[in-house]
Amino acid sequence: MGSSFKLLTVRGIDIRLHITFPFILLWAAFVYGQMGGMSGALFGVVAISLLFVLVTLHELGHSFAALHYGVPVRRIVLLPIGGMAQLEQMPEKPIQEFVVALAGPAVNVILALIMGGIALGFGLPLVNPLTNTTLSFLSIFSYLLLYNVILALFNMLPAFPMDGGRVLRALLAMVTSYERATAVAVNVGRVMAVLLAFYSLRSGAVFTLFIAMFIFFAGTQELAMVKWRQQVRRSGHGYTVRQVFSSQVGVLGPYDSLRQALREQMRGWQSDFPVAEEDRYIGFVTESGLVRAANLYGPDALIYAAMSPDVRPVSPQTDLLDVQRQMARLKIGALPVVEYGRLLGMITYRQIQEFIHTAATWPNNDAPRVVGAS
């Protein structure tokens, strides 16, 4: 993940910070600084930083519930507009999705109750954190208490793929097909996204506009994914690597140094590299493996030092669902494509997602009719 860097790992889940995250801190310092000067700017930075601790706990709630049902969690990424727990897939049993979706807001509700109990028990004189931006324990405590409540309520809006939208889909899936439930929930989410966009344009709430855009497009992508999976099940066979992979990839040689690989990586076109000699597959270097090897052995070590022994190449006949599972298990974004020991190319998670979206939008006579579709 070249667009984010790892902060820590919790129960095997990487918690990563997106490279654009500092912008939210700069925004907070500017906005609250206008209200309270230097003290206000410091309040903004501290409050937003702690707010994202709450967001991380919220996403861990989802993640732990998913792990309970045996669903691998790829990572948690913190972005300026919020957090995102990336699961291999949502559980398709409605009751399991219902629990996973509620687990995040439940964390915030529990924290709000604990903080409220502390405030009552110790008689803390809470302040209005929207107007009192003085950097103090009471102002920060009041801010976090308020935003625990806001996080719980806002995420329960029926705007798929937010938590409330997933709860709606789970409830609908108990009485209708999973695909139809997804379509209804996504279209409700689209309406909510449009309303949020209008509100943000009228009020100047820039981050709300970004959230509205995320809801609209992420919901559309989720619906495409579900349609594709249902199409695979109806047809009785899946799509394979042969239909997706690219043969035009950068390849490292066995005598290349880590420095050369890092130089290729910094060009930005490719993060993971197969290693081959005259098309004979030798191994695979992941983005994280390359950085780790360079730190351990230095940039002049040979590429062998960075090759991952856990990565197994896939053949052109491998089912895409199996490819996604292996990527999720290893927490990587690409795999080498090999046939009879010969390197053919590479398949990436992004290529699969783009293919899924295209395949799911092919004409389908079995597509559900959605009441109130936009």
Task: Please summarize the sheet with the most strands.
Answer: 4 strands, mixed
Distance between the termini: 35 Å
> What low-confidence regions span 5 or more consecutive residues with pLDDT below 50?
360-374
Strand order, largest beta sheet = 1-2-3-4
What is the general shape?
A: globular
Please tally the helical runs, counting DSSP H or I stretches of 4 or more residues.
10
Q: Layout of SSEs?
A:
Layout lengths: L3 E7 L2 E6 L3 H47 L4 E7 L2 E6 L6 H29 L14 H19 L7 H11 L4 H26 L2 H30 L22 H9 L6 E5 L2 E6 L1 H11 L22 H11 L3 E6 L2 E7 H12 L14
Parallel strand pairs: 2-3
Antiparallel strand pairs: 1-2, 3-4, 5-6, 7-8
Helix pairs in contact: 1-2, 1-3, 2-3, 2-4, 4-5, 5-6, 6-10, 7-8
Question: How would you sum up this structure, described in words?
Answer:
Helix content is 55%, strand content 13%. It is an alpha+beta fold and 374 residues long. It folds into 3 domains: 1-156, no CATH class; 157-236, no CATH class; 241-358, CBS-domain (Roll). The strands form 3 sheets. The protein has a 4-stranded mixed sheet with strand order 1-2-3-4, covered by helices on one side. α4 packs antiparallel against α5 and α7 (258-266) packs across α8 (287-297). Residues 360-374 have low confidence and may be disordered.
